[in-house]
Design a protein that fits this description.
This protein has about 350 residues and is an all-alpha fold. It has a single domain, classed as MetI-like fold, CATH 1.10.3720.10. Strands 1-2 form a two-stranded antiparallel sheet. Strand 1 and strand 2 form a beta hairpin. The protein is globular, with a radius of gyration of 41 Å.
């Protein structure tokens, strides 16, 4: 019995010693592993820092390059704007320096006299105003209605693509082509004759693509959330367009009208076949009367006048009045547009 107890105690002692040895080995292995992993993490962190330092220098170089490109682009845009401004100043100075002597009360309130070598340009001013305002009255409703249909109602398809292609092509057609069209259609076929009506319709057809394009862009600029909110409150499609979309896009539509007025007031080729005449001392009394116009009057004085050199100051004075008239019409439209924006804002 004693032998068995001694043997059992020795076995237990040997087992305990073995466990202690295994525990020491495990601890030594873990310490070695921790040492290696620590060195590995230190080396990896050092490498990552090296990579960051290596990437930092190219990023700064790229940032410097981007700033240089941005500065070059800004200076290019500033140069283009400065060139446009300088050209405008040169033209105005050229006209003012040569035409200011002709500007007086008689020049602005009297008809031409003595074979258009004396007198004024009142019939030309009235005729230009009639043609410009008549063209806008014709083109603006049709252009806005066409843009509303194309942007709000029309479904994408081949027919709509053809219509849009035709509108874009009409914007690039020379004005002389519109003049021949007005002569053949309004003057001859509809028998309106050479009159304010024929000229206004011709100029309206010419400015129609500009107004349609500007109105479409203005309608696209209105957020879709406006339409969705209006329809969600129970409004119909037309009520949404009439009460929400059109008021929000009105400043952009007026921009198209400004461009249309500017183009219509300065055109010569369309009206020389449809509305303007060489000379008429009286003011128009109806839309079927023929008229004088500032662009055509400048053309006549510079090319077909009786004394071209002696009327040179009248030519520059007429051109100066035409620019002032166009600027005045544009300024009135711009002020009205700014007032609408303040009211909407």
């Amino acid at each position: 019995m004693r032998f068995v107890l001694r043997r059992t105690g020795k076995v237990l002692e040997d087992t305990a010693n073995m466990r202690k040895g295994i525990f020491r080995v495990i601890m030594n292995k873990s310490e070695e592993h921790n040492t290696k992993s620590g060195s590995t993490s230190l080396s990896s962190s050092g490498r990552s820092q090296e990579k960051r330092i290596g990437l930092l220098v190219p990023s700064r170089a790229r940032e410097r390059q981007r700033r240089l490109i941005q500065s070059a682009a800004f200076w290019l845009f500033r140069g283009a704007a400065a060139i446009n401004g300088i050209v405008l100043i040169i033209i105005l100075y050229f006209l003012v320096a040569r035409g200011w002597r002709a500007i007086n009360w008689t020049f602005l309130t009297q008809p031409p006299l003595e074979a258009m070598t004396e007198g004024g340009i009142l019939p030309c001013i009235v005729g230009t105003l009639c043609l410009s305002l008549g063209a806008i009255l014709v083109a603006l409703p049709i252009g806005v209605a066409s843009a509303i249909y194309l942007n709000e109602y029309a479904r994408p398809g081949r027919v709509i693509r053809i219509i849009r292609l035709g509108i874009n092509n009409l914007a690039g057609v020379p004005s002389i082509v519109f003049g021949l069209f007005g002569l053949a259609f309004f003057v001859v076929w509809l028998q309106f004759g050479v009159s304010i009506l024929s000229g206004a319709l011709t100029l309206g057809a010419m400015t129609l693509p500009v107004i349609i394009g500007a109105t479409k862009e203005a309608l696209r600029a209105v957020p879709d959330t406006y339409r969705e909110a209006s329809l969600g409150l129970g409004a119909t499609k037309w009520q949404t367009i009439h009460r929400v979309v059109l008021p929000a896009s009105l400043p952009g539509i007026l921009t198209g009208a400004i461009l249309g007025i500017s183009r219509a007031a300065g055109e010569t080729a369309p009206i020389m076949f449809t509305a303007a005449v060489f000379f008429t001392p009286s003011l128009p009394s109806s839309i079927f009367d023929e008229i004088m116009a500032l662009p055509y009057h400048i053309y006549v004085l510079a090319t077909a006048g009786t004394n071209i050199e002696t009327t040179r100051h009248l030519q520059y004075g007429t051109a100066l009045v035409l620019i002032a008239l166009v600027l005045g019409l544009n300024l009135a439209a711009i002020l009205y547009r700014a007032r609408l924006r303040r009211r909407m804002g």
